[in-house]
Write a structure and sequence with these properties.
Elements lengths: L1 E5 L2 E8 L2 E7 L5 E4 L13 H9 L10 E3 L3
Antiparallel strand pairs: 1-2, 1-5, 2-3, 3-4
Organism: Pseudoalteromonas caenipelagi
Protein name: DUF7661 domain-containing protein
Length: 72
């Protein structure tokens, strides 16, 4: 699982059945699948942050200017 701070929202990317799936994480540990975002089949994990930045760039603010990886 790969976690990101996407302009203030914590999201995770998980591999299931040969596809990458995006989830929005809650403060209580619950995850909700984001069906509106589909990852290309050729995308690599090191490209997730840039892809999410491209998709959600309109949420950018001075407090959250970019997508940040939370995966250690």
């Amino acid at each position: 699982m790969y976690k990101f701070n996407v302009f203030g929202a914590v999201m995770s990317v998980v591999r299931k059945n040969d596809e990458w799936q995006l989830f929005k994480e809650s403060d209580t540990g619950m995850r909700v699948r984001v069906y509106d975002v589909v990852f290309p089949t050729t995308i690599e994990p090191d490209e997730f942050a840039q892809y999410l930045d491209d998709i959600y760039h309109e949420l950018s603010s001075t407090k959250h200017p970019k997508v940040v990886s939370l995966t250690t």
